[in-house]
Amino acid sequence: MDESGFDTMLARLAEKSRDEHYNPYTKFSWPEQVSEDEWWMHPDYLTVAGTGLVEDEKTLKALARSETVNFFSLHVNGIRELMIEVSKRIHTPGYADYNEYLHHFIGEENAHMWFFAEFCYRYTGGIYPEAASPLRRDGFGDEWDDVVVFSRILIFEEIFDYFNSRMGKEPLIPDILREIHAAHHHDESRHVAFGKQLVKRLHERACAAAPERRDDMEKYIKDYMTHSVRSLYNPQSFKDAGLPNPLEVRRKAMAHPVRREFHTKVMARVDRFFTGAGIFSTPWEA
Amino acid sequence: MTASTDTAMDTVLEFLRQCNAEVDTIDWERDLIDARILDSMAFVEFLLVIEEVTGTPVDLATTDVNTLRTLNGISATLTERITARD
């Protein structure tokens, strides 16, 4: 996409954000309770789906609840860190072209963080804590760190969108959950469109500034994709669903061939983007 | 090391091998982060492996993760945790 095409896209996305703006605090009709007899997530999207590791419907329904909490918690914890990084960059040199849209991005992500957290606090014991690494990540240098931040956001959004786009029209799940997934899917399509073009530009800029780090970056992004997929398998979710050996179930589920195929599907779109944009020399392997 | 500590260490080594096969040739006193066997993201997964093989949770408030940065340190931690557990 050339310069004028990119500017046109940014203007169009900002206009859509303005036109489709809503008040997240009044958008949803929160029910008194969400029945535990219902599936909070379609069973096909549970981390044990297709593995045969859990067969009992009551346990699977409990897992649908705890994996909903995990999914929403991943958003709350993940986007907090990424919003900090975006906030550090807005209105700084090099970001002038993106300021307008970044305001919409931060505003919309703040709304998403609120409604995901709100669901967890209203109907469950709250969000799960972040599985943060006790080690600090070494920086790659300014230009490459920009690529890291926006690539992480893109991966994160694509994973969420895979589930949101399906769960947002899933009749099996309670209305409030379907509405939350649908609202997120609606906003994320704009963020993904913006993110792809931005990552391409930032990657080109970083390659020009420090080409020797290109391979390190490819490895980092791929590792982040793997890390993101694994974060769906939270031992606490398995424990809260009443499974006796949460770490064993997690390990077996993650390694199951059916699940590896699923991981590839979840990541297919973003992997195609990274490969097509020349950011990856080879596709990511689940 | 006891038999169960040996088995636990084998499982940890297998995990580290998947991160970077060079773990098989590394000095057991060498820092695994500096040697690029582990990075900050893989470390999250690594802590879960330690929990599973020892059967005890890793509480980051009370665990000095620096003791887990070398193979000798990991081995000592496994021995300590498994002995305390049994």
Q: Can you give a write-up of this model?
A:
- The complex is a heterodimer of chains A (286) and B (86).
- Chain A is mainly α.
- Chain A has a single domain (3-23, 35-130, 137-276), classed as Orthogonal Bundle (Ribonucleotide Reductase, subunit A).
- Chain A is built from ten helices and no strands.
- The radius of gyration of chain A is 19 Å and the shape is globular.
- Chain A starts with a helix and ends in a 10-residue tail after the last helix.
- The model of chain A has no long low-confidence stretch (mean pLDDT 94).
- Chain B has helices spanning 3-19, 40-54, 71-85.
- Chain B is an all-alpha fold and 86 residues long.
- The longest helix of chain B has 17 residues, at 3-19.
- Chain B has a single domain, classed as ACP-like (Non-ribosomal Peptide Synthetase Peptidyl Carrier Protein, Chain A).
- Chain B is globular, with a radius of gyration of 12 Å.
- The interface between A and B is medium-sized, with 17 and 14 residues.
Apparent shape of chain A:
globular
Largest interface: A-B, 17 and 14 residues
For the biggest sheet of chain A, the summary is: none
**Percent of residues in helices of chain B:** 40-55%
End-to-end C-alpha gap of chain B: 13 Å
Strand content bin of chain A: under 5%
Q: Which H/E pattern describes the elements of chain A?
A: HHHHHHHHHH
Strand tally of chain A: 0
Query: What name goes with the CATH superfamily of chain A?
Result: Ribonucleotide Reductase, subunit A
How many domains of chain A? The number is 1
Summary keywords:
heterodimer, A: 286 residues, mainly alpha, Ribonucleotide Reductase, subunit A, 10 helices, 68% helix, globular, B: 86 residues, Non-ribosomal Peptide Synthetase Peptidyl Carrier Protein, Chain A
Can you give me a brief rundown of this structure?
The complex is a heterodimer of chains A (about 290) and B (about 90). Chain A is an all-alpha fold. Chain A has ten helices and no strands.
